[in-house]
Amino acid sequence: MRAGATRCMLLGRDLFAKIQRAAVGVRPLIGSRWQEFRLPFGAETKRFKHSRVKSTGFQDMNTRLIHKLPALHNAMWPGVVGKGSGSEPPIDLDTMLKLTAAADVDGVKFDGVDLFLTSPHTDIDSSDEDLKRLSDKVASFGLVIGSLVAPVWGATGGGSAMGSDDERQRFLAQVRKACRIGRKLRGLGIRRYGIIRIDSATTTAEWAVDPEANTQRIADTFRLACDIAEEYGERLAAEGEICWGGMHSWKRMVQLLELVDRPQTLGFQADMAHTLLFTLGYNAPEDRLLPEPFDWSRRDQFEESLRLLTSALRPWTIDFHVAQNDATVKGSGSHDKTGRHCLPNDPNGKLSIVRHAGYWMRNEKGEPTRAFQHICWDGCMFSNSVMTDPNTWRDILSTMIAVREAHGWD
After folding, report:
1. What are phi and psi of 252, to 5 degrees?
2. Helix%, strand%, coil% for the chain, nearest 5
3. For the chain: N or C, fewer Cβ within 10 A?
4. For position 324, which CATH number holds?
5. 381: left (phi over 0), alpha (psi -120 to 50) or beta
6. Which residues, in sequence order, are CB contacts of 133 under 8 Å at separation 6+?
7. Beta bridge partners of 196
8. CA angle 210-213-218, nearest 5°?
9. Which residue blocks in 264-334 are alpha helix, DSSP H?
């Protein structure tokens, strides 16, 4: 175990040397009928035909689809996360499904949804009859179900992965319930792919009391969670965010995954907004990849930091969230401060979504990793007026289509 941690600390140095030799990543030529991309890590240049390319960074499509995969999903939890507790009221699942199903870009629609397994959306203690009704409802909108978020936190019936024995048992009980739901939905035919999402369910302040011992305890809990997932034929994905202790920086995330050492069962869920904050060292200044303060006109430095980050975490990535971030943090309701999600065409967004998605979706040879069968839009803590505007979901779907065009497969 100690050797794994040592490998993690040496990882940055080795990858940095490697990345210095790598080619510049995706480079769109905006405004032409043909859009050209130079793929990461020196891959051959590829060309994709569009009817029109907008300067906002996403394409309108009225020509044939270039790729069929990965499937395009929308997350349902933005209707719940950051809502209530002094914030705006939650948006019910039916409304989120209707908005998702109604989005249309020249005949292309969302393929499915990813779910949060907690009330008021989907009760973690749902009966088989409840799940059948859920399956029928989602299917009635022409959608399928992909990844599932296990409610492992204390406020939702779980407990800290590094906490007391009782807390850890509650954490594992929620993982078991989520895996049982995942298997049931597979049996109903509504879910053919996707993972069970987990995190450490502990704050960075609690973790920092004894970082190494606490990381080891989280790893022990995650290994037990892997045992449960394997019973149900499921895979787990840990989503690194700056608010989750032991998963709050890129180096700590790699260290934890190596300590668990169950790559066939536990992988990484990469969210473009949350991982951007890793480069800035929020809650982990010692692991910062960009200088402080950072001049955002230095795109070369930013690109280099993203290449380093994705080279470290991409081999572990089995679930992927398309997202935008303005390099700030936000908390709402009961949710701690984490990477602020922005709309895809937000003028303050720091990510070139299509370009930077390629760092996650393509390997060092520039080939699609095909490590996941769907990609999901994640955008939490938007106002309800934004969330219920149909134009919001059309713009998001346009971005998702552009990502699939650039980095998808058949």
Report:
1. -65, -35
2. 40, 20, 40
3. C
4. 3.20.20.150
5. left
6. none
7. 148, 236
8. 110
9. 272-280, 299-313
d(C-alpha 99, C-alpha 47), whole Å: 33
| Calpha distance 255→266 (Å, rounded) | 13
Name which of 319, 119, 123, 346 is nearest 236 in CA terms.
319
CA distance 113 to 146: 6
Query: How far is the C-alpha of 399 from the C-alpha of 127, rounded, in Å?
Result: 36
Structure token pair of residue 163:
């906490």
Query: CA 96 to CA 266: how far, in whole Å?
Result: 29
Residue 236 to residue 124: CA distance in whole angstroms:
16
Q: How many helices (H) and strands (E) does the chain have?
A: 12, 14
Helix spans in 28-86 (H): none
Distances (CA, A) of 369 to 265, 319, 363, 409: 17, 12, 6, 10
Q: CA triplet 395, 75, 254: central angle to 5 degrees? A: 110
pLDDT tens for residues 144-188? Answer: 999 999 999 999 999 999 999 999 999 999 999 999 999 999 999
Structure-token match 């870009």, residue found? 105
The token pair at 366 is 């520039």
Full residue range of the structural domain in which residue 286 is found = 2-407
Contact between residue 196 and residue 236 where contact means Cβ atoms under 8 Å apart: yes
* Amino acid, single-letter form, for residue 135: S
As a residue count, the chain comes to 410
And the tokens for 342?
């922005």
Mapped onto helix, strand or coil, the DSSP state of residue 144 is: strand
Q: How far is Cα 124 from Cα 159, in angstroms, rounded to an integer?
A: 15
Write the pLDDT tens digit of every residue in 242-295: 999 999 999 999 999 999 999 999 999 999 999 999 999 999 999 999 999 999
* pTM metric for this prediction: 0.85
Domain count, the chain: 1
Cis, peptide link before residue 120, omega less than 30° from 0: yes
CA distance 77 to 341: 13
Beta bridge partners of 324: 342
| Tokens read off for 327 | 């390099």
**Cα 208 to Cα 243: distance, rounded to the nearest angstrom:** 12
- CA distances to 59, 107, 393 from 54, rounded to whole Å, are 6, 19, 17
